[in-house]
Amino acid sequence: MLQFKNSEKVFTIKGLSQAVEIPFGNQKMIILSGQIPLNQQGELVGNDVKTQTIQIFQNIKDILETCGAGLNDIVKLGIFTSDISQIAGYREARDQFIISDTPPASTLVEVKGLFRSDVIIEIEATAVVKI
Predict the structure, then answer these.
(1) Model confidence over 32-45: pLDDT tens digits?
(2) In whole angstroms, what separates CA 100 from the centre of its chain?
(3) Per-residue model confidence as pLDDT tens digits over 2-49
(4) Running DSSP on this structure, what letter comes out for residue 95?
(5) d(Cα 117, Cα 122) in Å, to the nearest integer?
(6) What are the pLDDT digits (tens) for 77-107?
(7) DSSP states along 30-82
(8) DSSP code of residue 125
(9) Other CB atoms within 10 A of residue 125 CB
């Protein structure tokens, strides 16, 4: 049965779940909504892609922990940025959270804009974990 979950450590946006768990036998897939660089109080963190990415990965980590998973369980990342020229900052921040020897599959897309003009990057993640 599908389970929709939210972490108390991450700011909750009305109208969406932070994650959905989908059981598959002895494993479950966890699909996260796109995460943005808001702290627990809903305040924007950073005005550069590196700082925003660090906050996003902390949010992803907290949501995955709520679902009984961790960053090493991520199998796919979707990265959306309004400024592809800052991608080096993204990679530097990402490498603080993701094991570079076994990185997940990923897609990087430059977009015209995100939901707010001060948000430079949004990241969605999919994880698979044994249950």
Answers:
(1) 999 999 999 999 99
(2) 17
(3) 999 999 999 998 999 999 999 999 999 999 999 999 999 999 999 999
(4) T
(5) 12
(6) 999 999 999 999 999 999 999 988 889 999 9
(7) EEEPPB-SB-TTS-B--SSHHHHHHHHHHHHHHHHHHTT--GGGEEEEEEEES
(8) E
(9) 30
Give strand pairing partners of 74: 127
On the 0-12 / 13-18 / 19+ scale of CB atoms within 10 A, 5 is middle
pLDDT for residue 55 is more than 90: yes
CA distances in angstroms from 102 to 46, 61, 71, 96, listed in the order given? 28, 17, 12, 13
Alpha-carbon gap, residue 33 to 31, rounded angstroms: 7
Q: Which residues pair with 79 in a beta bridge?
A: 108, 123
Q: The tokens of 74 are what?
A: 């991520």
